[in-house]
Specification:
274 residues; alpha/beta; two-stranded antiparallel ribbon; 16% strand; globular; aromatic amino acid biosynthesis; phosphoribosylanthranilate isomerase activity; RibuloseP-bd_barrel
């Protein structure tokens, strides 16, 4: 199973990271860095369409292999920004997704959008590292963390200005996460991909979003590739979507964003009909 292999690799990576990474030094550096850009806020109050969009900068995946051969992370990020994405997700896992922390750093310099470090966080050093790389949010995957770890990592993230996208893909995981005290800036990500079979079904968002109390924003992730999918997800009450592979396979990424998400709302237009 991919997930077990990935976590095993992460254990090796974080053991190496621990040899030279000082949390105290990281905190010192972070204290003089600019404030983060409010990832969760942008996807709720600040979104540019009726559904928020986290557009993903993604070269490859373990199940699909190479997705975009002509991969230029900065160019892709700038295209997403121009097309009205609210936030970006940047893969930093190297062995399985051909990502890199350097991609995140480069994208941070190029765009003004809030950024998610998309990786498999199993050690708090990765959270400090995410902030140093230029992230505004981290991904916490319930399938590879205990509820205690999620709670602790969320607290660490909040202490250095990072929001948390907490990803669940089953009823059991959702219940465990909702039992935790969710910090301001926490979002629930519902992964429509079954992490054991790698099959996707938007029914996951439909079923799991019903468990989420009002006021906790839900992001639907994976398997989203058509306006029909978007119509379906609007009815679930999701605040936004995370889309990567679909955009990465398109020749004209900007056109794909507009086609999938619809036109940008004009300033103030949201209030005209209220």
């Amino acid at each position: 199973m991919y997930l077990d292999r990935i976590v095993e690799t992460k254990r090796e990576e974080t053991a190496k990271l621990a040899e030279h990474f000082s949390i105290d030094k990281a905190i010192e550096t972070i204290s003089s860095m600019p404030a983060t850009k409010g990832f969760a806020q942008r996807l709720t109050a600040g979104k540019k369409r009726d559904m928020g969009l986290i557009a993903e900068v993604k070269k490859a995946s373990p199940s699909k292999g190479l997705i975009r051969p002509d991969f230029n992370p900065v160019e892709i990020a700038l295209t997403y920004e121009e097309a009205g994405a609210d936030c970006l997700s940047v893969l930093t896992d190297a062995p399985y997704f051909q990502g890199s922390g350097e991609y995140l750093k480069a994208v941070r310099k190029a765009v003004n959008l809030p950024l998610l470090r998309k990786d498999f966080v199993i050690d708090e050093r990765q959270i400090y590292e995410a902030r140093l790389l230029g992230a505004d949010a981290v991904l916490l995957i319930a399938a590879i963390l205990t509820p205690e770890q999620i709670s602790s990592f969320m607290k660490t993230a909040a202490s250095i200005g990072l929001d948390s996208l907490i990803e669940v893909h089953s009823v059991e995981e959702m219940k465990q996460v909702l039992d935790l005290e969710l910090y301001d800036g926490a979002l629930i990500g519902i992964n429509n991909r079954n992490l054991h079979t790698f099959e996707t079904s938007l029914a996951a968002t439909e079923v799991l979003s019903k468990l989420v109390p009002a006021g906790v924003p839900v992001i639907s992730e994976s398997g989203i590739s058509s306006t029909l999918d978007m119509e379906f997800l609007r009815k679930t009450g999701a605040s936004g979507v995370l889309v990567g592979e679909y955009f990465m396979r398109q020749k004209d990424i900007a056109a794909a964003v507009h086609n999938l998400m619809g036109p940008l709302q004009k300033e103030g237009s949201v209030h005209l009909h209220g």
